[in-house]
Specification:
Largest sheet: 8 strands, mixed
Number of domains: 3
CATH architecture of the largest domain: Alpha-Beta Barrel
Structural class: alpha/beta
Shape: globular
CATH superfamily of the largest domain: Metal-dependent hydrolases
Helix content: 25-40%
Radius of gyration: 24 Å
Oligomer: single chain
Number of helices: 16
């Protein structure tokens, strides 16, 4: 943790680097100068440690972990395992979690070590199902539960409080990891990783990077024309970043990467919730799009884009983008191009099920209905061309929809089997998380139940391969929720 300096008790560790001439004012006094030197040294040491950690240097301080001490060992006895990759459950098995890793999986009883036995928690599974923690590949933790106008007009402190609750609730729905694709989520992630709040692992994108009038521009009409260096509330809060030339796109992308983004989110086409842009518009020029994708690539990670139309997606692919979000209005030729170029498709089962945050007849509602009509065809094309397809909820501005996150996943039954759905929400989405490469904020293997993998686990009361609907009611059917080896929910008696 950073040292807290108190000027009255400060003893200068060394002479200031620059001599202060004359008497000067009190703000140039030697005590404050020494204090400034010490504070600056502390900042430099912290920055050096972070840089060393990113480069794998052995002399750097390790990144903060969720647990300050090792959690108790956990022994699951007599459980059936969905390992994240198979089409069937295992035979009755035993699984030992030690620290934050899955240490041993065996068809016969496991004998824990002496150290593990000291704090061992034994869980009698009685044939219940152990599965990997679920992964949502398109989340917005800062914006999922509050109405859009509340977010645009509220103090950012209130928005953060709501996000802490949203993260806690998401974890208790069994989602132990999320790729957050837009919003000022860095502080929430830091608090969760430091153990100050409960929530999923977060792969953050930071601010939406958008052109003027694009999908990430939430300024009021009377904010136009924008005055030089006059940033809107959403920009000041870190929710969006407006850029209208290649140099500014590059700068905004680099800012998010500097803040800790694991991937960059660019707005390549029109959107539903944004006030100015029809769905069919293409956003950014090829040069601007390439600037953002190149900034991410230079940092060892990738750019993903919000886009629905063939033109927006084709321009993005040509610019070096690695993943497409949505794409409900794509044609077959563009989907075939995605398959050829090995582009990820983060696709959402958006359907008109009578629930919408937008009033009937409103512009956003009309755009939403147009997008809904493309969902079925998009999934059929993704399956036909075998595009690498991830699942994400993309829930915004709606607490009821957020609570139904599991039901959002089970909508995939229209196109996929239960086994395919569970694979997508575990091992397949984990593959997409790994696309961040060295910018991934967590080390270790996710999305699977196998020896050496991170211990993100759910104990399900029933067989989700036979009844995928079990994940729609996590409060009833998820008897245990474990993230990073730590138990966040356990309604079973310890043996």
């Amino acid at each position: 943790m950073p040292q807290i300096f108190h000027e009255p008790a400060l003893a200068p560790p060394r002479a200031p680097r620059q001599k202060i001439r004359g008497l000067g004012c009190r703000c140039c006094g030697p005590r404050l100068a020494a204090f400034t030197c010490q504070a600056n040294d502390e900042v430099r040491r912290s920055a050096s440690a972070r840089a060393g950690a990113a480069q794998g240097r052995s002399d750097s301080a390790p990144p903060p972990r969720v647990q300050k001490t090792a959690p108790p060992a956990i022994l699951f006895e007599n459980v059936r395992i969905f390992d994240g990759k198979s089409d069937a459950l295992s035979a009755p098995s035993f699984v030992l979690v030690s620290g934050n890793l899955i240490k041993t999986i065996s068809p016969t009883p496991i004998i824990a070590s002496e150290n593990e036995n000291a704090t061992l928690i034994r869980i009698e599974g009685r044939g219940r199902t152990l599965i990997p923690g679920l992964i949502d590949a398109h989340a917005h933790l800062m914006f999922s539960t509050l109405p859009q106008m509340t977010i645009l007009t509220s103090d950012v402190g209130f928005i953060n409080v709501a996000a802490v609750k949203a993260a806690h609730d998401m974890l208790l729905r069994g989602f132990t990891s999320v790729r957050d694709l837009g919003g000022p989520v860095f502080g929430l992630k830091r608090g969760i990783d430091a153990g100050l709040a409960a929530g999923p692992r977060i792969w953050p994108s930071g601010a939406f990077i958008s052109q003027t009038g694009g999908h990430g521009d939430f300024r009021s009409p009377n904010d136009f024309p924008a005055r030089p260096d006059d940033y809107s509330f959403s920009e000041r809060a870190g929710a969006s970043a407006i850029a209208d030339d290649a140099a500014t796109v590059r700068k905004r992308a680099r800012e998010q990467l500097a803040l800790g983004a694991s991937q960059i989110k660019l707005m390549a086409g029109g959107g539903v919730a944004s006030p100015y842009d029809p769905l069919d518009v293409t956003q950014f020029t090829p040069e601007e799009m390439r600037a953002g994708a190149e900034a991410a690539e230079n940092w060892g990670t990738y750019a993903t884009v919000h886009a629905y139309t063939p033109r927006a997606v084709r321009q993005s692919i040509a610019a070096g983008v690695r993943c497409i979000e949505h794409g409900q209005l794509l044609d077959e030729a563009t989907v075939a191009l995605m398959a050829e170029k090995n582009i990820w498709w983060s696709l959402q089962p958006f359907l008109d099920i009578g629930e919408s945050p937008f009033a009937e007849g409103a512009p956003s509602r009309r755009k939403e209905l147009e997008m809904f009509r493309g969902t079925d065809g998009a999934y059929h094309l993704a399956i036909k061309h075998k595009v690498k397809t991830a699942w994400g909820s993309d829930i915004l501005f709606d607490p009821k929809a957020a609570a139904g996150q599991g039901a959002n996943l089970t909508r995939l039954l229209r196109w996929h089997s239960s086994a395919e759905i569970l694979k997508m929400a575990t091992s397949v989405n984990a593959e997409l998380l790994a696309l961040s490469g060295p910018r991934s904020p967590y080390e270790g293997k996710l999305g699977v139940v196998e020896e050496g993998a991170l211990a993100d686990l759910l104990l399900v009361d029933g067989d989700p391969l036979a009844n995928i609907g079990l994940i729609e009611r996590p409060e009833e059917n998820f008897l245990m929720i474990v993230k990073d080896g730590k138990i966040y929910k356990n309604v079973l008696p310890n043996k």
